[in-house]
Amino acid sequence: MKATTLNFIVTTVIVTLSAVHSVGGQAQENNEKLVHYSVQNLGTLGGVLGSSAHSINDQSWTAGVANLTGDTEEHAAIWQDGVVTDLGTLGGDNSNVDFPVKNNDGVVVGFAQTPETDPLGENFCIFLCTPSGGACNGSHQTCRGFRWRNGLMEPLGTLAGNNSAATGANNHGMVVGVAENTTPDPNCVSPQVLDYEAVVWQGNTIHELLPVPGDAIGVALAVNDNGQIVGSTGTCGSGPGIGPIFLHAVLWKNHLPTDLGNLGGTLNNVAYAINDRGQVVGASDLAGDNTGHAFLWQNGVMTDLGTLGGDFSSAAFAINDSSQVVGLSCDVNSNCRAFLSQNGLMTDLNALTAGSPLYLISAADINSRGEIVGAGVDLNTAEPLAFAAVPCDEGPAAGPIGIAKPRIALSGTAREQLHRMLIFGR
User: Fold this and answer.
1) Cα(394)–Cα(18) distance, rounded to whole angstroms?
2) Running DSSP on this structure, what letter comes out for residue 93?
3) CB 3.0 to 4.6 Å from 215: which of 130, 193, 233, 249, for a disulfide?
């Protein structure tokens, strides 16, 4: 379970072995005082094959996606005070909240299928439900971004194309995401036909955000309360089996793009999140484009955050205003674990969650209270499940010094979820 994503945004940070040492390992070896976390398994919407949490706001509203009874459909969900709410769809079969939504006033954004079959045969949104990674019901339905509030799901527009998706929102009415236009692009990988661009919605108005000059497509992923937007731009694709090529991690200010640079590589450069201090996190290839690392960008400088000990790739998905960064770090076999990075030190989140019912494979978001959400693996069933990790005390790293929970080999569906979470590939 849980490999929902946007079909046009699939890439991998997981490529090959890189001999990078972990600053997280340093944190455990020094036995520094670290916050411990109480972990809650958030459950599903009746299905048995899993769920994934992707967003938590400062009111502790957790949002993501979960399987319904029968495991043939999955819907966007909110977990609040122990209650899970099904957000529904736009008339189609499936929906999702796939990225951090930094709105504290009850607005949730995502993407949902409509009843209409895509006239071009595209599969703009992918929803995978089965243990083997098979598609949920509703393949090839059109997909639209949505804005949900007070029980009502409102569709968001496109750039005259058939599909769109919302990925983030701030507290001033701005919603960001991606929308198709009407331009067929021969570089798109089948079944994708049309180009798509980063967009911002304000009320019922949609504004296109231009890509870095020379790029054809773009996606906006997050917006802060200062109106700064981050994401990525690149080309639609270059051959069978190759998804979009994201060349530039981008910051938009006043609708104008700035290339944030890279860690030496030319591919897979994506800015996933920005806080109100203007700090940006994401993932970027290293020189040679054989692997990629999480980065922190601030004041014009991109810093490599490295990986956990023994791993070869990483990606950072969220940052709060205290500069705490979360994401995942993976070994050469695509077995991943959630990390927390702060004060220059990256720590395996599993080392801070003694007694957890889950092995935490990816941390997707962190709020101002330090509460973390993401996807874990049930140690009994090996299925991915949404988790919320709440700070509970402070002390030395859990377990023997330098050792977190033993790394586990992930199931095929858990790995598929992680490949898609590295969106570009999330």
Assistant:
1) 33
2) S
3) 233
User: Contact 259/267 with Cβ under 8 angstroms?
Assistant: no
Peptide bond into 155 cis (omega under 30): no
Residues 3-24 have pLDDT tens digits of 455 655 543 333 322 323 333 3
pTM over 0.85: yes
Residues in Cβ contact with 30 at an 8 Å cutoff, skipping those fewer than 6 apart? none
Q: What is the DSSP string of 33-56?
A: -EEEEEEEE---BEEEEEEEEEEE
Q: Which two tokens stand for residue 66?
A: 């979960």
Element (H, E) at 394: strand 384-395
pLDDT for 411: 56
Question: What average pLDDT does range 256-274 have in this prediction?
Answer: 97
Q: What order of strands is seen across the sheet that includes strand 205-209?
A: 164-169, 174-184, 194-202, 205-209
Can you tell me the distance from the alpha carbon of 240 to that of 226, in angstroms, rounded to the nearest whole number? Answer: 40
> Would you say the C-alpha torsion 108, 169, 375, 391 has a positive or negative sign?
negative
Residue pair 127/136 in contact by the 8 Å Cβ criterion: yes
Q: What is the pLDDT of residue 420?
A: 46
Task: Provide the sign of the torsion angle of the four alpha carbons 274, 316, 373, 243, taken in this order.
Answer: positive
Distance between terminal CA atoms of the chain?
Answer: 14
pLDDT score for 240: 46
Give strand pairing partners of 365.
373
Helix, strand and coil content of the chain, in percent to the nearest 5, comes to 5, 50, 45
Per-residue pLDDT at 214 exceeds 80: yes
Strand 336-342 relative to strand 345-348, pairing: antiparallel
Domains of the chain: 5-425 (2.130.10)
269-328 pLDDT per residue, tens: 999 999 999 999 999 999 999 999 999 999 999 999 999 999 999 999 999 999 999 999
Cα-trace Rg, the chain = 19
Q: Which helix (H) or strand (E) holds 418?
A: helix 412-420
pLDDT value of position 7 = 58
What tokens appear for 335 in the block?
Answer: 């077995």
* Beta carbons within 10 angstroms of residue 48's beta carbon: 13
